[in-house]
Write a structure and sequence with these properties.
By secondary structure, this protein is α/β, with parallel strands linked by helices. It has 3 domains: 2-140, Rossmann fold, CATH 3.40.50; 141-176 and 217-302, Serine Threonine Protein Phosphatase 5, Tetratricopeptide repeat (Alpha Horseshoe); 313-481, DNA Cyclobutane Dipyrimidine Photolyase, subunit A, domain 3, CATH 1.10.579.10. Helix content is 45%, strand content 7%. It has helices at residues 31-39, 60-80, 91-102, 115-130, 160-169, 218-230, 236-239, 252-256, 262-274, 280-302, 324-332, 338-350, 355-368, 373-383, 389-400, 415-422, 427-432, 451-455, 469-481; strands spanning 2-4, 10-12, 17-21, 43-50, 85-89, 106-110, 134-138. A 5-stranded parallel beta sheet has the order 5-4-3-6-7, sandwiched between helices. Strands 1-2 form a two-stranded antiparallel sheet. A hairpin with a 5-residue loop joins strand 1 and strand 2. Helix 12 packs across helix 13 and helix 14 runs antiparallel to helix 15. The chain is globular. It binds flavin-adenine dinucleotide.
């Protein structure tokens, strides 16, 4: 086969294998890459900034992460002997071009589970196979693929506890594989874009200074897991709800981008527990959170309309309120409820928010302001470094009460009581809401009850609550009862 590369040279067919990276930005425990390496054929690693219509584009914080993660991946691949090719465009067209330019005869990738990605991948696979290009896909991002865990009637689970019980039964032998020792380089690899030309890092303004604590990439992911297993996991069960303490793994963006896979997390955690380095109960609790990630992916796979539609259709007639001012106050962390505002400001500054606080701010938006959960999901999508379709949509619907195994609609978090329970000394609030630093502990979650303290030492006045908790609660309950 004669092929033409971008410099215009005509080269003999290379028999190269394209590894199409997506949410698997790692070299270890990456079945598509391993398969390519084991074939002994030249490997062309490819990342496409995909513009396929219907595939949800990444938000700003995710693009920031992607920028750094691709830099790290490119370095790791280079060390193995292969150059990462970057391309932007509609994935099917880009693949066609790269195949034509390189003469590759095989394309490998790891699977994704949202409908738009699956439709795209199925169409690409069918078209390539028709043209005689070998095409294979693998599982890199889940412990159990969604179609493998079903109940006794062959139906997917809708409730987490039985789902996780059944899922664990499949996990008697979880094996994560290492990185390939070497990749055969391809001398037919086509040109790629320069990462800097994609402009993923924000400028004018650069709002990412607060993201500096993150280390995107495979090494950063393993460093996080190691540090977590050496420290915070001991006490995870008790402390994971306390936002003022660094008690959780912060692995979510690394898992989302596939810089570390759940098999690797599972093995490292189970091994540490088996060797007596960490308590078994804490390991189980931590792994059950990985289980929620699995559950949400399973729900999204079986109910693909979840990102736009209520899982429970009775919620379709919920009387949402359109209130741009309230929505803006929520986004900016100016609701007058300290725990809500602290969370929203942590999100804006760092691209992350503690899980307990995510639940509180989501409940506040949906129930106190009666703003559609889809507005909150969209804001999180743009601002979270771990923005993940399955987890974001699953958790927003969980909070709204409209999702699978959801929190009951009548559970309306009281933002004052939640703050007092989970941030009793106000450490978290003081960190993110500097106006309240001088407030005494007993009123830090209800500063309006001690207005004098607001001016004493405070740089500027902190807003009063934009809604009254008791009235908002009553209004929400009435709306829910009307369904
Ligand atoms: P850890 O407590 O260390 O947990 C380990 C891992 O388990 C996490 O990294 C994550 O992959 C998984 N996990 C933990 N909690 C959950 C959960 N409730 N649902 C699903 N997986 C979980 N998580 C995302 O990864 N992406 C999102 O877009 C996202 N949006 C959310 C929106 C709302 C409204 C809420 C309430 C939660 C959301 N979560 C999301 C879940 C959760 O808040 C984060 O996964 C968690 O805070 C990440 O912190 P961690 O890695 O320190 O978690």
């Amino acid at each position: 086969m004669q092929v033409r590369n971008d410099s215009g040279d005509s080269k003999a067919g290379s028999d190269a294998v394209i590894v199409w990276f997506r949410k698997d930005l790692r070299i270890a425990d990456n079945p598509a890459l391993r398969h390519a390496a084991e074939s002994g054929r030249p490997v062309i690693p490819l990342y496409i900034l995909d513009e396929t219509p219907g595939v949800r584009p990444m938000g700003g914080a995710s693009l920031w992460w992607l920028d750094k993660s691709l830099t790290s991946l490119a370095e790791r691949l280079e060390a193995l002997g292969a150059k990462l090719i970057l391309r932007k465009g509609v994935a099917a067209q880009v693949l066609d071009e790269v195949i034509a330019q390189s003469g590759a005869t095989c394309v490998l990738w790891n699977r994704l589970y949202d409908q738009a990605s699956m439709d795209r991948d199925a169409a690409i696979k069918a078209a390539l196979k028709d043209r005689g290009v070998d095409c294979q896909s693998f599982n890199a991002s889940l412990l159990n693929e969604p179609w493998t865990v079903k109940n006794g009637s062959g139906q997917p689970y809708k409730v987490f506890t039985p789902y996780w019980r059944a899922a664990r039964e499949h996990l008697t032998r979880v094996e994560a594989t290492g990185a390939p020792g070497r990749l055969a380089p391809s001398d037919c690899a086509p040109h790629g874009d320069r990462l800097a030309d994609w402009g993923l890092h924000p400028t004018k303004p650069d709002w990412s200074q607060g993201f500096a604590a993150w280390t995107p990439g495979e090494m950063g992911a393993h460093a996080r897991l190691d540090a977590f297993l050496k420290g915070p996991i001991d006490g995870y069960g008790d402390q994971r709800d306390v936002p003022g303490v660094e008690a959780t793994s912060k692995l979510s963006p690394h898992l989302h981008f596939g810089e570390i896979g759940p098999r690797q997390v599972w093995m490292a955690t189970r091994n540490a527990a088996d060797q007596g380095d960490i308590p078994v109960a804490e390991a189980d609790k931590f792994l059950s959170e990985i289980g929620w990630r699995e559950f949400n992916h399973s729900i999204l796979f079986h109910w693909p309309q979840m990102p736009s539609r209520n899982f429970k259709p009775e919620f379709d007639s919920f009387p949402w309120i359109k209130d741009e001012r309230a929505l803006e106050a929520w986004k900016k962390g100016q609701t007058g409820y300290p725990i809500v505002d602290a969370g929203m400001r942590e999100l804006w500054t760092t691209g992350f928010m503690h899980n307990r606080v995510r639940m509180i701010v989501a409940s506040f938006l949906i129930k106190h302001l009666m703003i559609d959960w889809r507005e909150g999901e969209a804001w999180f999508w743009d601002t979270l470094v771990d923005a993940d379709l399955a987890n974001n949509v699953g958790n927003w619907q969980w909070t709204a009460g409209s999702g699978a195994d959801a929190s009951p609609y009548f559970r309306i978090f009281n933002p004052i009581a939640q703050g007092e329970k989970f941030d009793p000394k106000g450490d978290y609030v003081r960190r993110w809401v500097p106006e309240l630093r001088s407030m005494p502990d007993e009123v830090i979650h209800k500063p309006w009850t001690k207005p004098l303290h607001l001016t004493a030492g405070a740089k500027r006045l902190y807003s009063r609550p934009i809604v009254d908790h008791a009235k908002a609660r009553e209004r929400a309950l009435e709306a829910y009862h009307s369904l």
